[in-house]
Design a protein that fits this description.
Layout (H helix, E strand, L loop, with lengths): L1 H35 L13 H9 L1 H17 L4 E7 L6 E6 L5 H29 L3 H17 L4 H13 L1 H26 L1
Antiparallel strand pairs: 1-2
Helix pairs in contact: 1-4, 3-4, 3-5, 4-5, 4-6, 4-7, 6-7
């Protein structure tokens, strides 16, 4: 049984790394489209985007898990965290991490990537765990619900882009080199992965 679980974890990690780019793109585009559906005038309605408000409440457990993963990855990467904050602007629940100062570009990019990979890994594990452990219907429903919530949060945020820009401004020359090296490294990694699959 322990061997089966270990094999499952390794397989899930492999699939998480393999499927992170398409999941990241799809979820980011989906969240972007949902944000665009919101009202433009600030005080037109308290719930500026009723659908986003509903989804942020519905998937709060997934949001908390995603934020916890992000916090752990940031601490391991040595990114100095100021605090974990939350807001309910226009009725939409937001939980986010405030960073003291922008880290090096390479550290930030690897941390952001690791955050999404681990989130996808957790979501995939929650999807298959009920069938491996043969859980009852209630636990299966809970696992599936939380997995969808984690998937829903596995996207790029405007704060991520802003932090990358701040890191590049803080280290303009070396940051540009680091950006190119990390992108090349990711491209090589996925070229190898696709090669293995083919």
């Amino acid at each position: 049984m322990q061997t089966d679980v270990a094999t499952l974890m390794i397989a899930n990690l492999y699939f998480a790394i393999q499927w992170t780019p398409p999941i990241l793109v799809v979820v980011t585009v989906l969240r972007g489209l949902l944000l665009l559906k919101g009202q433009k005038r600030e005080f037109e309605d308290w719930f500026r985007n009723p659908l986003m408000t509903f989804l942020s409440v519905l998937f709060l457990p997934g949001t908390l898990i995603y934020t916890g993963i992000r916090y752990a990855v940031s601490r391991i990467a040595g990114i100095k965290i100021d605090r974990v904050s939350g807001s309910t602007t226009y009725g939409e629940l937001n939980v986010f991490i405030e960073v003291e100062k922008p880290p090096r570009v390479s550290v930030l990019l690897v941390a952001l990537y690791a955050n999404v990979v681990l989130s996808v890994f957790v979501a995939l594990t929650l999807l298959v765990l009920p069938f491996v452990m043969i859980l009852d219907l209630a636990w299966t429903a809970i696992c599936l619900y939380v997995a969808v919530g984690v998937f829903y949060n596995s996207s790029l945020r405007s704060g991520d882009a802003g932090l990358v820009v701040s890191s590049l401004r803080r280290h303009p020359r070396s940051g540009s080199i680091e950006l190119a090296v990390v992108i090349a490294g990711f491209a090589f990694l996925y070229w190898q992965l696709m090669g293995v699959v083919l």
